[in-house]
Structure prediction request, 124 residues.
Amino acid sequence: MGRWRDGRGRLIVCTDSGAVLGAPVPLEISASYRARTKGLLGRDSIDGAMLLSPASGVHTFGMRIPIDVAYLDRHLTVLTVRTMPPGRLGLPRLRARHVLEAEAGAMRKWGLRAGVQVTVEAEG
Prediction:
């Protein structure tokens, strides 16, 4: 898997048996300190999801919209999914290495829940 660089890609959600759930999700990858710090701050929406890596926790101070947050382990398995309104501090997850953020309600539509495996395909 290696380390990612800031950029774009696709998020692929798989079932426990490895079957792909739905269409790939557009993905923004935030791997640098600066990109992770900014995250979704100041945005009114996001098309798809944002991957923060490495990360084990997030906050929503300064955000305009509620977001879904999925904590991923080092194998990209979802540990937990939470919906956070603006102005909250999410507790860091012990085994989390990456965090996915999306508009509230999006992850349920994609079938993202604890135990689900995801794949990240970076462009370039």
